[in-house]
C-alpha cells in the first residue's frame, strides 16, 4: 500500500488538500478537502471521501458546521477522487461563497 498526500494553494485564502491510499495502483481510500482561511485558522468548506466505504460529499458552513453526507458518485474511488478534485478546482470560489452564507 502506498499513501500519497499534497496541498495545493488555490488563492490567498483557499487551498486543496488531497490524501489517498493505493493498493495495486487502485485508490482504496481517499479524502479531498477544500479549506479556507477564516481569521486565524483553516476551516473545511467541502470534504469528499470514502470513509464509510462509499463516495460521499460533506458540505460545511461557517455557522452550521458539517452537514449530513451526500452520496457523491457511484463509480470507483479513484474516479470519484479525481472528479472531486476537478469540482473543487472549477468552483472553489462559489463553494467558499456558499460556506460563508
Give the overall pLDDT as a whole number.
95
Number of domains: 1
Q: What would you call the shape?
A: globular
Residue share in helix: 10-25%
**How much beta, percentage-wise?**
over 45%
Number of helices: 1
SS elements, strand count: 7
Based on CA atoms alone, the radius of gyration comes out at 13 Å
Q: What string, H for helix and E for strand, traces the elements in order?
A: EEEEEEEH
Largest sheet: 7 strands, antiparallel
Structure classification: alpha+beta
Low-confidence stretches: none
| Cα-to-Cα separation, first versus last residue | 40 Å
Describe it.
- The protein is of the alpha+beta class and 101 residues long.
- The chain is 24% helix and 50% strand.
- It contains 1 helix and 7 strands.
- The protein has one helix at 77-100; strands spanning 2-9, 14-23, 26-38, 41-49, 56-61, 65-66, 70-71.
- Strands 1, 2, 3, 4, 5, 6 and 7 form a 7-stranded antiparallel sheet that branches.
- The N and C termini lie far apart (40 Å).
Defining key terms:
101 residues, alpha+beta, 7-stranded antiparallel beta sheet, 1 helix, 24% helix, globular
Amino acid at each position: 500500500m502506498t499513501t500519497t498526500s499534497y496541498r495545493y494553494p488555490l488563492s490567498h485564502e483557499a487551498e486543496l488538500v488531497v490524501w489517498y491510499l493505493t493498493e495495486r495502483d487502485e485508490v482504496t481510500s481517499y479524502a479531498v478537502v477544500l479549506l479556507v482561511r477564516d481569521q486565524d485558522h483553516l476551516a473545511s468548506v467541502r470534504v469528499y471521501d470514502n470513509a464509510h466505504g462509499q463516495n460521499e460529499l460533506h458540505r460545511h458552513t461557517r455557522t452550521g458546521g458539517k452537514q449530513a453526507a451526500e452520496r457523491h458518485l457511484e463509480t470507483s474511488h479513484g474516479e470519484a477522487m479525481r472528479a472531486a478534485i476537478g469540482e473543487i478546482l472549477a468552483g472553489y470560489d462559489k463553494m467558499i461563497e456558499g460556506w460563508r452564507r
